[in-house]
Amino acid sequence: MKEKRFGIDIDGTVTCPASLVPFINESFSLNITLEDIKKYDLAEALNIAPDKMRDWFDQTEPAIYAASPLAEGADKILAKWQKTFHLLFISARRQHLFDITEQWFHDQKIHYDHIELIGSHDKVAAAKRHAVDIFFEDKHDNAVMLAEELQIPVVLFNTPYNQDAVPDHVIRVDNWHEADLWVQQWLLQQGRISPLLRT
């Protein structure tokens, strides 16, 4: 019986945060790495006109999503979790990108119980509607909002663009292995023996 419900962002969380860097370099004749992106807003981070960046992203978004590599370890941890937890992927992607998103999950052999593309960074309503127990995110503002409004733990995957201070309910991790260890500790603190620890 699956008890806990995990809300999981896709881009920069399940996918590698550097997924769009090659596309940026090619399109804007740059030679940057992920470490150069210190702000979530790409226009601000790269000093590119917002309209120009928005048009570029609208055109390039499907190709980026189709080609995005997995974040290291995500497949192994999600495969482990899917036996025990509900995996609900909640993304700011827009609905017209659902087929590309679903195909990517199929290609990567990532199990999901639900995929929801809400077209907005405000994930509070979706997380509340699905009664999410923990959320996994890479966007600082999302993590803080989810943690404060829903009073749930939010696991924030460290990136150069999300280094602002966070409240107590936001837990920083560097990778999926650390996220898994935190989940096991969280379950133990609740007085439950994680099924993951019985194997």
Structure write-up:
This protein is of the alpha/beta class and 199 residues long. It folds into two domains: 139 residues, Rossmann fold (3-Layer(aba) Sandwich), CATH 3.40.50.1000; 47 residues, no CATH class. 41% of the residues lie in helices and 13% in strands. It is built from eight helices and six strands; from the N terminus they run βααααβαβαβαββα. Helix 3 packs parallel to helix 5. The longest helix has 18 residues. The radius of gyration is 17 Å and the shape is globular. 28% of the residues are buried. It comes from Domibacillus iocasae.
Report the major sheet. Answer: 6 strands, parallel
- What is the N-to-C order of secondary-structure elements (H for helix, E for strand)? EHHHHEHEHEHEEH
CATH topology of the largest domain: Rossmann fold
CATH superfamily of the largest domain: HAD superfamily/HAD-like
Strand order within the widest sheet? 3-2-1-4-5-6
Q: How many strand segments?
A: 6
Shape type: globular
Helix-strand category? alpha/beta
Q: Unreliable segments (pLDDT under 50, ≥5 consecutive)?
A: none
> Residue-averaged pLDDT, rounded?
94
Q: What is the CATH class designation of the largest domain?
A: Alpha Beta
* N-to-C CA distance: 16 Å
- The total of helices stands at 8
The CATH architecture of the largest domain: 3-Layer(aba) Sandwich
Estimate the strand proportion. 5-15%
Radius of gyration from CA coordinates: 17 Å
Count of spatially separate domains: 2
How helix-rich are the residues, as a percent range? 40-55%
EC number: 3.1.3.-
Protein name: Nucleotidase
InterPro entries: 5_3-deoxyribonucleotidase-like, HAD-like_sf, HAD_sf, Nucleotidase_putative
GO molecular function: hydrolase activity
